[in-house]
Known about the structure:
Rossmann fold; single chain; eight-stranded mixed β-sheet; alpha/beta
Amino acid sequence: MNNNEEIKEMVRQKYSEIALQDKDTNASSCCGAGGCSTEVYNIMSEDYNELNGYNPDADLGLGCGLPTQFAKIKKGDTVIDLGSGAGNDCFIARAETGETGRVIGIDFTEAMIDKARTNAEKLGFKNVEFRQGDIEKMPVTANVADVVVSNCVLNLVPDKQAVFAEIFRVLKPGGHFSISDIVVTGTLPEQIKTAAEMYAGCVAGAIDKDEYINHITQAGFNNVTIQKDKPIIVPDDILKNYLNDEEIALYKSNATIIRSITVYAEKPESCCTPNSGCC
């Protein structure tokens, strides 16, 4: 990828295609829950079925965690979901915040927004809305949200620091986020890192775990906590598309290089960032 805009356009095109597919089709592709593999592929394997508010029509099988399960959403909260897709996490958040709360989903893919709005209309939800926009510059005013959630989306965004700065901006003082994402704990092979299919499949856009956490603290958040951390095992029949046998052996010598984490952090009550004045 030559620049950030090319990366964004590639992701936009890929997820526009996914929005027009059903979950079974997505599950048979490298970007979906099943991962185009004959082996068990657990990048997108989290099970939503037991969560209140779950709606199968809104589940495209693209998540890598269950951030709403850890998000400490209360009745009446305003919740923003970044990269809201077909609305799955928004509807689960709505079950937590209730009719007195508000849920805003943000996605920059028009086809996803259309699909999410259709799902919301079918469910009759009046307090869930979907806005098309870039999460590096959210179409939301400052100090609006009590909680921000996101599921396997930030790793697709080129400027992660900008996203965390935006999350800080839109959260109310004392608000918090819970985000599931893909990170690495070593050096990702260049063949995987530059492969568009793997990028849209939430692997090649991942950054180092320590760097990821550093972006959060630099944005001004405190009480940063890893709520869940699990290894991602990429099976051989996928690795063979990108690496030779020697490279696969070297890559697998660090079997937990790719990880799915769910991270929590809070915006201070007095909302001063390290690099700017108080809000």
